[in-house]
Fold ABC transporter domain-containing protein.
Amino acid sequence: MSNNQITLKGVKKSYGGRVVSDIADLALGRHGVEGLIGPNGAGKTTLMSLITGKISADAGEILFFENGNRHDISGKKLDAVARLGLVRTNQRIQDFESLGILDSMLLSVVQPAQETVLGLFAETALRQQAHPAINRYLEAFRFSDPGGYALSAGEKKLLDIIRCLLLKPKFLLMDEPTVGLPQDQTDKVMEVVREAARDDGMSVVIIEHDLDLIWNVCEYIHFMADGRIMAQGTPDEVRTSTMVREKYMGEGDA
Ligand SMILES: Nc1ncnc2c1ncn2[C@@H]1O[C@H](COP(=O)(O)OP(=O)(O)OP(=O)(O)O)[C@@H](O)[C@H]1O
């Protein structure tokens, strides 16, 4: 079980007078792999952006606890939060067309001070030897041209997730990780994420509309609607909640 947690107290965010996030009291990361679900526009992505410092809250406190250390990350910027080991995969895929697959992976494993060393890794074979973790991901995920660029939407998405995992985060927030990925790739992504949660103590929160994935992968689920956390519990508890069914799922889906 992970030692890492994010807590939010009285966190509020409004756009043009409309409250899109109103989190009274929330703890994330107590249960290994957790899910954050809710209807479109519920405020899930906004919540992740508030935590990672992409946007700032109007009020409230956000704390990050990692291995006994307490960090007040309210109002902290994106890079400062990422340096603490709190990393987020992207809902919208990034443009990797100017950086090859291997180079972008390598950039995740070298420390900033070592970046000039990149020049030493001129040979592809040498680069691969240098990082067993990269080899492992290349083996598992079979890019169409690993020595070239990630071109399809699926490959870009995959590369984004792998780069985040190579950073060895303490806490990983995943925003709709499976959109655009075929089922076999989705299964493999979830396998490596669960492995990192189990073996490295990484905490994970996954936003997904793919409820089968949520029920199968997550140990604990937070349900959000209208900017607020409305229900929390095990997959069984959330799946059978009348309120969750009414607000989110068709009666037949549960
Ligand atoms: N920059 C912004 N300016 C104005 N309104 C915004 C902004 N960002 C988000 N919103 C609004 O905040 C609400 C919550 O959006 P958010 O993207 O967080 O929802 P979500 O739960 O992630 O939805 P989805 O499941 O569709 O991704 C929506 O009504 C959205 O239109």
